[in-house]
Task: structure prediction
Amino acid sequence: MSKKKGYKNYSFFEDGKVVLITGASSGIGKNVALALASYGTKLVIVARREKKLIQTTRQLRKLKIKVLPIIGDIRNKDDRARIIEQSLKKFGRIDVLINNAGLGKANLFLEQPISEIDELIETNILGLIKMSKLVIPIMKEQNEGHIINLSSSLALLPVYPFAVYCATKSAVKTFSDCIRDEVKEYGIKVSTVLPGPYNTEFHKVAGLDDSSYQSYSVSKLAEKIAKLVIKPKENLIQPWFFIPLVWIATRFRFIRRKITLPISKSIIEGKIKKEKVEFKKEEEELKITVEIP
Ligand SMILES: NC(=O)c1ccc[n+]([C@@H]2O[C@H](COP(=O)([O-])OP(=O)(O)OC[C@H]3O[C@@H](n4cnc5c(N)ncnc54)[C@H](OP(=O)(O)O)[C@@H]3O)[C@@H](O)[C@H]2O)c1
Result:
């Protein structure tokens, strides 16, 4: 088959492989979609915020990419079924599922409302597992496929103001490690991505002030994930210097605490800072409303 002009020189996408990305309205998912565009793949992109998803779609279409945007919530059974149905109707197959949709909530466990715990577990664990459950039979039928699950470096470096989030991301890592051996015989590969802090909307959603700590460029991470699509490997830890950090922390508990305790403290400070900013904003808005006759 002839190579498409301008596309990177990988045979993987020559016959039009289809990549389904959940959570592509912002952050990592959006940037992975844009990074994959240079490989000429067909994309299905999913998220709840219509306006933002359409923005991603427009950017991809400018790059001449075949893209199907689907507004949907991965927590919802009907939405999950519709995502799969519409993907198959449009492209006839699903070669790669990037289970990226997810969120964190910075909170002390004792103060965390049950609604927040439910949202974290339903999105990060149940949504991801149930999307995989729908896609694996399709990949089995195709005799090939690849599932990429977004975990977090916090799965291996647990920090206490993110207890439930860390637990969900550990579950993602364990789930990936378990199903990898089960689905291997059907030609299906499973990868786990364990990022450190990246500059996305994650911190805003988590209720943190992002100026309180350093985060890294999401476009670089997206390039690495796009490469993982072409050349699958079991685990991708980014940025690279988190590899020795995680290695040491998982072997020596006292060193792990030396690493994680300052991170926990900076998360609490980030949360307090954000709450103060929001309180001030509310006060100012109230003043303006009161001044209006
Ligand atoms: N950024 C980091 O530092 C970091 C580090 C480690 C791991 N991660 C993981 O990376 C993944 C992507 O996060 P991000 O950093 O890119 O954050 P982000 O910018 O907030 O993006 C999260 C994406 O997930 C979507 N999403 C959330 N809940 C959803 C649901 N129920 N159904 C469908 N889509 C949903 C959001 O879209 P809508 O709101 O429009 O639905 C959005 O597109 C997450 O799983 C996160 O845990 C992030």
